[in-house]
Each structure stands twice: as structure tokens, then as C-alpha cells.
Amino acid sequence: xxxxxxxxxxxxxxxxxxxxxxxxxxxxxxxxxxxxxxxxxxxxxxxxxxxxxxxxxxxxxxxxxxxxxxxxxxxxxxxxxxxxxxxxxxxxxxxxxxxxxxxxxxxxxxxxxxxxxxxxxxxxxxxxxxxxxxxxxxxxxxxxxxxxxxxxxxxxxxxxxxxxxxxxxxxxxxxxxxxxxxxxxxxxxxxxxxxxxxxxxxxxxxxxxxxxxxxxxxxxxxxxxxxxxxxxxxxxxxxxxxxxxxxxxxxxxxxxxxxxxxxxxxxxxxxxxxxxxxxxxxxxxxxxxxxxxxxxxxxxxxxxxxxxxxxxxxxxxxxxxxxxxxxxxxxxxxxxxxxxxxxxxxxxxxxxxxxxxx
Amino acid sequence: xxxxxxxxxxxxxxxxxxxxxxxxxxxxxxxxxxxxxxxxxxxxxxxxxxxxxxxxxxxxxxxxxxxxxxxxxxxxxxxxxxxxxxxxxxxxxxxxxxxxxxxxxxxxxxxxxxxxxxxxxxxxxxxxxxxxxxxxxxxxxxxxxxxxxxxxxxxxxxxxxxxxxxxxxxxxxxxxxxxxxxxxxxxxxxxxxxxxxxxxxxxxxxxxxxxxxxxxxxxxxxxxxxxxxxxxxxxxxxxxxxxxxxxxxxxxxxxxxxxxxxxxxxxxxxxxxxxxxxxxxxxxxxxxxxxxxxxxxxxxxxxxxxxxxxxxxxxxxxxxxxxxxxxxxxxxxxxxxxxxxxxxxxxxxxxxxxxxxx
Lengths: 358, 358
Fold this sequence. Notes:
The structure is a homodimer.
Chain A: H1 2-20, E1 25-27, E2 34-36, E3 42-52, H2 63-80, E4 84-94, H3 99-115, E5 120-127, E6 135-145, E7 161-164, H4 170-182, H5 191-203, H6 206-217, H7 223-228, E8 233-238, H8 243-254, E9 256-261, H9 262-270, H10 282-295, E10 302-306, H11 311-317, E11 322-329, E12 332-336, E13 342-345
Parallel strand pairs in A: 4-5, 9-12
Antiparallel strand pairs in A: 1-2, 3-6, 4-6, 7-10, 7-11, 8-10, 9-11, 12-13
């Protein structure tokens, strides 16, 4: 049963992708180990993430979206190190063998694996018994030249610009829309905060709502961007826990402070959705968005620091990258207003342990 | 909370082991990815296994034993491919943060990781909410020279001797003793079989009982043996699912049949415990042991095939290796009696899906 299931939904659908990578995958699924041949002169990068039903995804999320996201959050870690994906392993622990769910999960996984040319090379599938939560662990492997420094968090320098890709906070907006749909927003926000959030959600353009839910369900890891930043960025993280929390990993490890411009953070949204500044109550909405931008996790965008001399080179990679602030001597995360007044941002990262389950 | 827990029980206790391997571990726990530097001219071997509480270990198993076994079963896969461990990642999903359990688990993990010089390089810890089962996934990395063929299952040849290390079935005997202790042997055996098992357990020497439970709880992966077999063995598997099932992986992949000598299989036990042949009813006992030897999983011994010309070289590696049969043209698994009569062994491998939970 186990062998059949693995063959039908994993070995067979992924066979073409493994074959297309036969130079790097010496042995795939089916032996005691997979065997890979990393490129000579390259370091091996490894990252692993676990997704638990009810904690990291909703039970009624479409199975292909769960498959996509399981690999996406791991590829995002490779992206944050500037590594090229070469393969991954999958541990799937299921309460029962729900074959239609497995088929959907596998289809989503194959879609993202094919998009990033990252073959499935091994895994373990377990039936954990009724009443358990679906648990998915993926470990992904990548490579980068040994001379690349991997964008370690401690490599940021005072004077570096701070950059972000995409729209940090967009996935959190998607999560809030999902909570609203399920009637459980009040478990997430205090009564003093919830009104402004509800107002924001009620006036938000429909196109933005759809993109927010898509950002939550099917994040697009910035794998190509990460590799393009080799030789340009100093430190880089992916925004899995939220901008303020993840940027703090860099400032803490590098012994620096970050000063982010409120105007720049708002422009991340306004550049894509200029109509947000025209809505009634837009000042309040932009404040609410600012908090979502700082706190929101699960974006899987990149936040990186680079010396100002690289500005043109970075903008030529991708015009949608936004420079949101600078690093300075000192510690902590600060917001600066257009009038140059500063306000310290305190403890607002996304913590899976601290948060209510979905 | 999550960061503190990881630091206290994983990053800090494993720091010395990571440092001792600084040539191969460029970046350990704490960045988006770990970075490893495999030796030039070597292939990278990867294996992953999941252990679920109540399926793969008992809820009341000592936490250090669970930590040991979680890595042992992965190292055993590297052993079966003849690879040298270089590091591993850990995914730990817990119902609640039971810190004393985590501390014990980490201690057992560190003990085996130190024994095999295999540093923890990354991971993910998740609180999955009350009423969930502890779920542990480990992915282990190893290396072997590119010219080593990895003992693929399809590489066995007709005429090869079949060898095993240790005492296959010993861990199954340990599992039966645990079931007996919990009063649940009847969930595992039919009423027609249970009497002979109970009789065997009742007369078994105490020293054998203790070793059987130890084999179940703290199996010793044959990592050094696996590497010593490079250039000698053709195909190799580890006995995670049981001798008959795992050997079938080799015979099926290689398009051959295996003929095992009943006398040789029994001598695997009698060489270590000669008193088993002196017990009242020893003929029945030896038959029961034979079934346990063929069916028993979780042994993490190696079963390998090698051309007869390598006999002396293999015996000089380790005198406790037993030659139990040969491969022939044909298909299936056969037992041969001293009088050369043969009997086919049908479908008796250990399947996690098919088995009752503990």
C-alpha cells in the first residue's frame, strides 16, 4: 500500500523532472538514499520547514495550494542565501490515506518543483492514525559557488541600504481575509484594533483581495532574485516571520540598527494600488497597512541590505524592488517620518508558538 | 520562546560537534540555510525518515532513546549505501512544549550524533497543538567517492552470496516483549500463533530479552561496516522493514531469486545464544525465531550481496557477519532445508500502514 501510493503520486509524476536533472541526481526515489552530484567548487545549501494542518495552513485549503506552499517556503530560504535549487525530500504524515488529497497535494508540489526545476529525490510517507493533523516536512538542497558568502545575517554593514521585494504584508492581508471568512478575526485582534482592520478590509479593492489570498496560499519564492543578488547584497533574509522580526535577525547578528522610512513602506503599497490613497479615511488605512507590513509573516519576499554603490545594479535587476531604509550604528528597528522624527518599533514579529491556531 | 528553546536544547549542546566539523559545515543552525562543503569528487547521499509517536515509538519510551533512534534509522540508510555521514536536519512537531522531554530527546540525539560525528545543521520546531502526536522527521546527509556505485538494489548478480550483520529479528523480539508488557500481544498475533510466541518469550534467557529491547530502542547503525563494504558488496539494504521484505527489494530490482538456508538463519541466533537449542521444545522455538527473523523490522542491520570471491575479505571485516544464502536466476524468496528441499516465502514484510498502532 505504502509503496503503491508513493509510486502513483510521487515517483511516477516526478520521474520526468528527475530525468531532466540526471546530471545532478544520480539516484532518486526508491533506494535507501538518494544520491546527488553537486557541481564541483560549489557549497551545498540545506533548509527545512514543517507545515502542520491548523497551524500553518487551513484544513480546507485546496490540496494543490498546500503542496505548492510546502516547497515554496523552503525554496524561499534557498533564495535568501542566493542558492540554486537542486532537489528536495518530503516527509508526509497523514491521519488517513485520503488519496484524492494526496493526488492534489502532489499536483501542486509538482507544479512548483517544475517551475524551479527542483526534483523530488526521496521521502517518507506515514499514516499517523485518525485524529492527527496532516504534517508536511520538506528539506530542500541547493548549491552556490564556494566563494559566494551566502548572505549571512551577520554580514550587513552600517550605511547599507535596506531593500524589499514585492509587497511585504500582502500575505498577512490574505490571512486576515481568511479569518474574516471564517468569522474568527476577533481571535487575532483586540477589540480596539479590529474596527480599523474591518474597515480596511471592507473598502479594499477586489483585485487586491484576490492577490492577498493568492500571496498567502501560493507564494512565489524569489529564487532568481536571490541568485541575481550574489556579489551585490551583504545580508539577506526571507520574510517568513514578518519584516520587523526578520530584519531584526540581520540587525542583531550584525550589531546594527535599521531605520525605515514610513513613506517608503507605504509606497510599497501605493506603487501597486495608487487608489489606496484616495479611499475615505486613507490616513488610517495607511497606518493599518503599515502595521500589517511590519508584522505580517508568510510573505516569502526577500529583505536584503546592500551598499549604496550597488543601487543602480540592484534596480536594474528588477524595478519592483523597493529601498525602504538604511542600517546605522546602534540597535533596534526605527521608523522615520517625512519630518525626520523617529519612533522605535518594539517586538512585533510573527511567532508560530505564540499565535492562536487557525 | 521558539528561538530560546532551539538555542537551549539544540544549537548550544551541538555547538562543539559543529565546530569540530568546521571544514565541512560552513554555516550551521541560525541562518535561513545551513551550508555544507562536501568533499571534492564525492557524491552527496540523502535519506529521510519520519517517526510518529504511537506508530514508530511508544509514548512512554524514554526521550533519550527516541532521540537516539530518530537519527539511527537515518544513519542506517547511509550505511546501506556505504556513505560517510556529514550532517543532519531535524523537524520536530510537538503537541505542547514539554521541556523535560525535549531535553531528554536532545541528549539522546547528541549522543548518537557524537558517536557518528554527524552534526545537527538545521531544523524546524513546531507546536502543533494539544492532542497531536509527537512527529520527528530527520534528513541526513552523507558523502562517498563518485566512483562508488552506492550499492544500488539493482546491482546484485546471480551467484552472489547473501550476507547479514548482527541478529535480524532481535528488535522484533524486543517489540514483542514490549507488547507483552503492555498486554497487547493479541493485537499483533492471531490466537493460533500467539501460544508459541508466549512460550518462546517465557523461556528466553534474560540476557537475550534485555538485548532485544535495547535493539528495538537503541539500534546501532552499521555505518562503518557500510563503508568497509565499498568495492566488495554489489547491492545492500538496511533491515528496516524486515529481512524478507528488504531482501525482496534487491531481488525484485535485480530480477533474481534468493535462496536462504534455514540452518544459516537459525545459526545467526545459535552463534550468540547456543542455549536456545537446549531449551525444551527447541524445534518449535527455532521455527518461531525463524519467522521473527524473516518478518522482523526495525533491526537496522545490513543485508548485502557479494560475489563469492569476496568471502575472505568480507569475513576479515567482521567475523560476526553471516552468510545466509545465495542469489539465483528466477524470482522470489525461498528457504532451503538441510535436505535441499525448498519452500517459497510469501509476503511477510513489515508495513507501517498495515500494522496496528502501538
